[in-house]
Write a structure and sequence with these properties.
8 helices
């Protein structure tokens, strides 16, 4: 005799419908994709970069200030990435024989910028202004985490609107929609 599947209903026990089983079967792949999507938003390792740059060494051990390399952070919306010239300012003499610095030297010789991969990428309808946050003395670590402990920078916060609004309220900053959205 064929075994029947049963499910609960308000009227008692009844056989589970094919439609219900199909909905469940269809829901599993959807939830799997949704979970993977969320997990990928907070990359545990950070993207592979064209040159193995250690924030742990530079920001951590050597205590190089964020704004020494990301010099646009205090005067524009974008923090920017350091130019090859900025990096070579130190590395013409420091660690010049290391593989990463030799690769940097190749970019310098070709007069080619390094195509660093973005770690944080907000939606197009959101404007984030590094300069406003620097002027308000918001520590870089509030959004970027302890970069000085990271060999390779990774996204540590999922900078959602809710997180940003909570922070703005705590800091008594504007929560006007047009402050961040255009």
């Amino acid at each position: 005799m064929e075994q029947q599947r049963w499910s609960a209903s308000r009227k008692g026990r009844r056989p589970a419908s094919k439609r219900g089983r199909l909905a469940f079967v269809g829901l599993v792949p959807f939830l799997s994709v949704a979970l993977l999507s969320c997990a990928n938003r907070l990359d545990l390792e950070g993207p592979d970069q064209p040159i193995a740059f250690s924030h742990k060494t530079h920001a951590g051990q050597l205590k190089v200030d964020c704004q020494f390399c990301h010099l646009y952070a205090r005067r524009s919306a974008s923090a920017g990435v350091p130019s090859v010239k900025r990096c070579m300012g130190c590395h013409e003499v420091v660690e010049s024989d290391s593989p990463a610095v030799r690769k940097l030297q190749e970019y310098w010789d070709r007069k080619e910028p390094i195509a660093w991969k973005k770690v944080y990428d907000l939606p197009d309808h959101v404007s984030f202004f590094h300069d406003r946050h620097v002027r308000a003395e918001v520590p870089c670590q509030d959004c970027h985490g302890d970069v000085g402990a990271m060999e390779r920078v990774r996204q540590v916060k999922d900078l959602t609107m809710d997180e940003c609004v909570q922070c703005h309220r705590q800091q008594k900053a504007s929560v006007d929609c047009l402050a961040c959205h255009h």
